[in-house]
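Throughout our pipeline, every protein is held as a single compact record rather than as scattered files. The record that follows is passed on verbatim for readers who wish to inspect the format.
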Amino acid sequence: MIGILLVTHGEIGKSFIDCASHILGKSINLLECIPVDPKSNLEECQEFIDIEIKNLDTGTGVLILTDIYGATPSNILKKFTTQDNVEVITGINLPMLIQAITNRDGKLSQVTSKCMQSAEDSIIRMDSK
C-alpha cells in the first residue's frame, strides 16, 4: 500500500485528513501530515519529511501532496522528487486525496496519474441553468 504524506501550510493538511476520514467513515492508515508555518525551521522540516517517508514506505512508495506550487512547502519538497520511491503533487484538493486513499494498491506512478486526473475532473463551474 502506498503511503501518503501531506506537507502543507499550517493545519491545512490535518483538516484534509479529518475531512477524508469523515467522508470515508474510518481512520486512515499510512497517512500523515507535516505542517509548515512561517516560524518553521526548514532544515528541520526536511528531516521530518525524510523520517515520515521512511515510516510510510512499505515498499511501494510514498505520494506527497502539497498545496501551492512555488510556496515554501513545495520548495522544501523539491529535493525529494529525485527519489525513486516518491512522487510529489501540488494543488491538493479533497477529491485528489480521496482518490489517493481509495486507490493506492497499484504502482505509484499510476496512483499519481489518477490523483491528478481526479483533481482536474473535480473542478466544475456550477451554474443555475
Observations:
- Strands lie at 3-9, 31-36, 62-66, 86-89.
- The mean pLDDT is 95.
- The chain is about 45% helix and 15% strand.
